[in-house]
Amino acid sequence: MKGREEIAQALAASGYIADADLATAISLMQLLRRPLLLEGEAGVGKTEVAKALAKVHATELIRLQCYEGLDQSAALYEWNYQRQLLAIQAHRGTDSIEDQLFSEKYLLERPLLAAIRRPRAPVLLIDEIDRADDEFEAFLLELLSDFQVSIPELGTISAVTVPHVVLTSNGTRELSDALRRRCLYQYVDYPDADREARIILARIVGAGPSLSVQIARMVEGVRKEELRKVPGVAETLDWAAALVGLDVRDLHNVPETVHETLICLLKTQEDRARVTREVTLRLLGRVA
Question: 15 and 29: one domain?
Answer without folding.
Answer: yes
